[in-house]
Amino acid sequence: MRHLRTKLKRIVPVLVILIVISAAVFTRQQKKILVVEELETGKVYAEIPVKTGDELSFQWEHSFEHIPWYEYYEIREDGSFILHTIAVAGFGAGIPAEMDCTYRYEDGLIYMDDIESEFPQFNWINSQTALKNIKINGELLLLGSDMPHHVKMVLRIRNGFEK
Questions:
Q1: I want to staple 92 with a disulfide (CB 3.0 to 4.6 A). Which of 60, 64, 65, 117 is the partner?
Q2: Distinct helix (H) and strand (E) counts, the chain
């Protein structure tokens, strides 16, 4: 019996350490990281932890109409993005006017709600004049001017254990 207690005193701390390490690894694997980087070089401009359900938004200035354009996405469990709403100050070249969605007018903007389009990631050629900002849950992440002009960019979600 005494021999069993001695063995247990040695085994229990090892088991506790293994459980703690396993929990830490599991938690790290579950973490989502939003990354904005140059597509060709991999140079990172933003890297921030996010959660399922967080809101990602873009503010643009339409290149021809020079009116504000807002897009509101939700981060999904699988790391993709679902577009819920677009808000624009008017309609013109390239602005969708006949979408199958709910329309409302508020504070001088036309809101197109319930769009529900899915995007695995965003690839774009950055324009320091067209892209005003990128926000997470209403907090500024990047300005368009924080990234180089006319460079291929990607915004994606990676799991915490990936690089």
A1: 65
A2: 1, 12
- Decide if 49 contacts 70 (C-beta within 8 A): no
DSSP E strand boundaries for 16-67? 32-38, 44-50, 55-61
pLDDT tens-digit profile of 18-44? 454 544 444 444 699 999 999 999 999
Residue type, 97: A
**What are the sequence ranges of the domains in the chain?**
1-30, 33-159
Angle of CA points 84, 63, 123, to nearest 5°: 55
**What are the pLDDT digits (tens) for 91-105?**
766 666 677 889 999
**Token pair of 148 as six digits:** 């180089």
How far apart CA 88 and CA 110 sit, in angstroms, is 5
Tally of CB atoms within 10 A around 110: 16
Indicate the burial class of 6 (C-beta count within 10 angstroms; 0-12, 13-18, 19 or more). exposed
Most distant CA pair in the chain, distance: 84
